[in-house]
Amino acid sequence: MQVGTPGSLGDAAPPRSGVKLGAWTLLAFSLPYISSVFLYVPRNVVQGIYAKYFGLSLTTIAGIVLFARAFDAVIDPMCGYLSDRYRARTGTRKPLLVVGGVIYCVGAYLLYSPPFGVTATQFLGAYVVFYVGWSTLEISYLAWGGELAATSLGKTRVFTYRIGLGYLGPLLFYAVPQLPFFSTADVTPQTLHWAVIAGGAMMLPFLYIATTRVPDGHATGEVTETPSQGTGRSIRLWLQLLIKNRPFVLLLAGFMSISVGTEMWYALIFTYVDAYLGLGAQFARMFMLAFVVGSACTPVWYRLIAWLGRKVAWIMALSLLTASFILTGSLQPGETTFAELATLKILNTAGNVGTGILAVSWLADIVDYGTWKSGVSRGASYFAMLTFSVKANAALASSAAFALAAWFGVNAAARAQTERAIFGVHLTIVWLPIAFLLMSLVFIMMIPIDARRHDIILRRLQARESRARRQSAGGGPAPSAASAHPDHGVRVRTRGV
């Protein structure tokens, strides 16, 4: 094959090293994720809070969560498209992080500490604002992280720092009910009120440090759109690029399956521990201990991925999640100890850490594959499509979990549950999640992108960039997205990368 032709995988110039990523740079990059996760974690308990303290029925909550999460999923592709457009025109995504962070903090306050009374309409409106801010912030944040490093292992390192430091967010949140001036260690509306104030106070300083101390990175193979393309044509273009990326579709299907299973578990775990096991006072302590372990195990996952590869690491992560689901179903009221609660949450958290690092770093590699295939860099669009699909499925899963709980007669305010209700909860948070985890494994094992192939793809991209710079210096036209597309050069088999 001709060296430098899109679609070929021969040897070329060594991959660029990317920007300098010392430990302090990566720590600065990861700081906003602490406050972001701090404000996102209460989403796992807020449904139970609205049912227990504010009197909303589980059926009403299920409908609101379904609508809000579906809305959240729908706006993700637009956020990704706008982020890529802004990046192409300005060379940065940082202002979008600041705007998204402010909206996110406002939405979190409306959701967790409703200032205008609690109604179904208020609950839904707060959710909408919350998710608009979250999507604006998170999608640009993920795309920025994928652009900081060049190599597969470098991208894994970036997201390992981000996820590892991010676990300080939930640790700090679940420390709030333990403070001495609260009358109970339970998560209550009062603790949510002070938690959201603390989370908002962290957000802007952390964003300032990250956006002023960390470089923008580099979007390899970027092709800036011309005004004549128009918004409609541009959206159709990146949708076509995403659909044609087979490794992306496989990763999407695999991670979507995991998100459905874990979301069903998270939707009911607070109600399960509080209403069924009668251990609501231990809930915050259980999560705090698990998140300490989660943060500590991120470097372990980094080494496992570098040593064993992503597919073996994925199997290990799924095994930990499966063990946590089985242990959840084995617990009995009046007999369960805090050690058992802590064990199941540690297993669950360790598994989620692994799949979290694997999914986003793997996707960063697949973004480079998509750029190699098309000549167009659309990192935020890929991350947006991932979050869109995961959120859409999570919305259905969370709503389905509450609907199943309501159908089987679960009562969040009762201290004893019927046999039918107990069976329904076990079905929802044990057996169905395990089935979805097994489904994810089938898709993940089919992904052809590994570290070796990504290195080759990166060399192809570097050769293309070098050729474009030489043509520009010599007065020749730079490659366009059309001329860079593999259909205009050598055709390749997607199955073999």
User: What is the beta-strand fraction?
Assistant: under 5%
How many individual domains?
A: 1
Cα shape: globular
Q: How far apart are the first and last residues' alpha carbons, in Å?
A: 15 Å
Briefly, what CATH class?
Answer: Mainly Alpha
Helical coverage, percent range: over 70%
Biggest sheet architecture? none
Run of helices and strands: HHHHHHHHHHHHHHHHH
- Number of helices in the DSSP assignment: 17
From the alpha-carbon coordinates, what is the Rg to the nearest angstrom? 23 Å
CATH fold-level assignment? Growth Hormone, Chain: A
How confident is the prediction overall: mean pLDDT?
Answer: 80
The count of β-strands is: 0
- Structural class by helix and strand composition: mainly alpha
The CATH superfamily is known as MFS general substrate transporter like domains
In CATH, the architecture is: Up-down Bundle
Q: Would you write up a description of this structure?
A:
- This protein is an all-alpha fold and 497 residues long.
- It has a single domain (31-218, 242-457), classed as Growth Hormone, Chain: A.
- The protein contains 17 helices and no strands.
- It has helices at 23-40, 43-52, 58-90, 94-112, 120-148, 152-166, 168-175, 189-213, 230-243, 246-276, 283-308, 310-330, 338-374, 379-407, 419-444, 451-473, 481-484.
- The protein is globular.
